[in-house]
Protein 1
Amino acid sequence: MNILKILFLFVFISFFKPSEECSNIYLIRHAEKVRTNKSDRDPDLSNKGFLRAENWKRFFIDKNISRIYSTNYKRTTKTVKPLAENNNLEIHIYSSDDIIYKTFLKSSIGENTLVVGHSNTIPDFVNNLIEEDYYDQIDDLNNSNLYIVSLCNSSITHKLITVD
């Protein structure tokens, strides 16, 4: 390739920018918790919960997760800890009461983000991202829902799948 072609290619690539980067936000409820003490507001994961946390790690291993958010509870942080450690990622602590959803979406552009929360907060988080009251609370015994919110070219799509 002659020098003129290389120069042209360099100039073309320098000025070419995609109109918008896409992002995926994955939202899950924490894995199964210990249920022996109903008054414990911060129970640990059960044995089944630790297995699910490992399964979530395997599920997300090829999703190029670059940010992880968790509420400040043992069951949520331990749900994402295997993935965070495997990918050398920090777990960012958030409170569902303090999220500004438009800002969260803007800061997620070009990223694949994982958010872990609770049966009553994750559907609300998704509903706020998509600006629609679409998803109901998660049944207290359901720990397998995965909500995916995708933002690409200013278009938001969403879906719910089950991962066992």
Protein 2
Amino acid sequence: MKTKKAQAWGFDLIIASVLFILGIVIFFVYTINTSQQAQDKIDELDYQGNLIAEDLMSEGSPADWNVENVQKIGILTNNKINNSKLENFYQLSDQNYQKTKSLFDIKYDYFMNLSEEISINGENIERIGRASENPTNLIKITRFTIYNNNPVTLNIYIWQE
């Protein structure tokens, strides 16, 4: 009889060991896949943030674009921020934020600001675009440019809701 009890105990130990090892394997596979998915999302946000930066750091299309005829949003003229283009970008973003996302060819929310205060029609504004209370995977893209004859940093924030 002692032999049967020992065999039953050994069988329970084998089953428990198999379940434990299976649990460890599932945990590691899940962790590896989750990490890769998060990295893919961050890479995509970084790519789309750079799309915005490339467009903003251009003259746009047409070169003298306005809210009605814009094909590509750009805020520079002669490698300096053009105040009228900046105002047009602000108006477009304020009136039709979704259109700006479409023009930038992005699917995530964004906003941009400068290291100096932005002045639109004599009023100081903090940002152009939409802010979020609780962004997920927030990415910041930085470019240097000239605003009001001073060097400034243009910051673009893009995130997933």
Protein 3
Amino acid sequence: MADAFKDLTPLMEKSIQALQKDLLKVRTGRASTALIDHVQVDYYGSKTPITQVANLTTPDARTIQIVAWEPAMLGPIEKAILEANVGFTPQNDGKVIRITMPPLTEDRRKEMVKMIKKMGEESKIILRNQRRDANEVVKKQEKDKEISADESKKFQEQVQKKTDDKVAEVDKIIAGKEKEIMTV
């Protein structure tokens, strides 16, 4: 029984971390290298993460600057960004690639808030599924007479409390990201 609870905690933590990682890719009006760090560049015939062929920086709040480690890679990097369909048009001046972030409109901000709320709801579903799986393990142990009904009930209450805590954490993360997006 304790093993199921020990397994549940890291699973729920991984779900929260996955949500936070996904939220980094959501544009908030400020430039962030996380918006393009998932882009795969054709590096001499093999797909390679952009972070392994170039240095990504944000010199100001509205610009992402990409400095290729090999000048010949500027073209493939620019092509990869366009193909990734991240919603930005890179400008290549022959030495560096710059991506200028246009300001977000009010409608676009509202769309993004809807999108992050959906991401939050999906995370909550994952947490609830993890709760269900842990409860099934306990119910099976109770059925097999490995634990008593009282122990089973106590454990299920602990699982519910843990789930409630993590759902509240997801709500807090989403609220913070919503505030960040809606701030002009």
Protein 4
Amino acid sequence: MIPDHHKRRLLKYSVIAAISFVFFFAAYSLSTTEINNSIENFLLNSLGKTDTWSGTYGPGWFVQIMNDFSALGGFTITSSLVIIISCYFLLKKKYEKLFRLLVISIAGGLFLLLLKYIYSGAFFNVINLLFQEKEMSFPSGHSMMSLIVYLTILNLIFEHSRHIRTEKFCIISALIISFVIGLSRIFVGAHNIFEIIAGWAAGGFWIGLTSIVHILTKNLRSQFEIEKIKENHPPQ
């Protein structure tokens, strides 16, 4: 029997996963349309190219800022954050949170590689893909992994917080960080808008899916513990 509060959470994450699924395929179907060309022309007319040889938009100082934001969603920063927070959970003996962080992050990275493979139609060099995405840009790994990593870390740290405002602040902060990282990838010429949306959608789907699995496994574990207690202490 699934408790009512678990049912509500299951419904919420199911909706998130379903909406993300729809947005992903909508972004894929629109990625080669005239809409994308219109957006690129708008950026070109509004900001201009940085120089003749680059694919970036806007003046040099603006591109540098966007590169700094972009790095927050790269493999080096996100993997470093996962390692640091994993060590924190290990020191605090929060082994369940440590396991969840590693599984969600590592499996999320593998899911990203699978999507890259499916939508590229060719084999790829994993090492090169971790640090640059120019050859296989759909979906955006920076926008996808930033959403997964930042949202998971903040959620695990402040999970079961007594202050609802704190939880909301953490969720909004993670979403803003991922949003800025995604936009920065457009300005530096690494992705178009639909590749970014697909990355966010894939990240949202992964968060929804892993949250559903966590709730179900937690509920099954609770039921198993209850049955075990009943077996050890049968009613008189």
